[in-house]
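Quick bug: SalK output formatted oddly.
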Amino acid sequence: MRDALEPIAMAHVHADEARREYEALGLERFAGYVLGRAGTLGTPPPPVVVAAFGAFAPGMLGEVHETARATASVPDVLAARERAATRALHRALGDPGPEVDETVAALRPGVEAAELLGKPLFAGLRALDWPDDPWARLWHAANLLRELRGDAHVDALVAAAIGPLASNLLTEAHVGLAGRDYTRTRGWSEAEIDAAVADLADRGLLAADGAVTDRGRALRDDVEKATEAALDDVVVAVDEALDTVVERCTSWSAAIVAAGAFPDDAFKRAAG
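Here's what came back:
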């Protein structure tokens, strides 16, 4: 379900419609993403944003958030990202049929059954009103479940004593991303990356060549299992509709990728 929902959930980030909406507010795409995602928490100070997001270098993320807040309002950027997602899905998928509302109806019990404790971004997003447009409702459901899984993943990483930089590096090694390109996009310096790689090697999680070790793979698998376990209530609530939901969303996501509203990059999709 995670893989099936990812392009739907992230249409408000990667689609051309998102770039245009954020630029109209004076924001670059990444700044619009940061302010919009953090905006579900209201107007938090930078340390709260850093704590909730998890994967980004604190200095870079805090600066982007502060600059974005000084440029556009939170209500405006939340409205912009909903418009962007709605228009992108209409462009990629056409007019919604009854199966869209059926899919949303199947997902909503899962959203409502999920535990809020320790899930700040999910809780903030769940407090927002559901959109009126069918495709927008599907995007909102997908975004809710993505944030739920993301919050649960951060919880699992903390329990495993894996920090944000280390988690990026382990993900690169696990999915086979070359070099440090993925980690660099999160704002970490080369010195910080070198130190984190050395620490992971000392812990026996990365080999000398940067490959993930058996111990590192086992730890990452444990984190994934803990993450998935946090979504058990969702799976139970969706119940017998799960296979149909995954099949439909996989098809819609393929169309979204084909329309250029999400990167045609298997590594990006795997890494999140």
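Actually, after a second look the formatting is fine. The chain has a mean pLDDT of 94. Closing.
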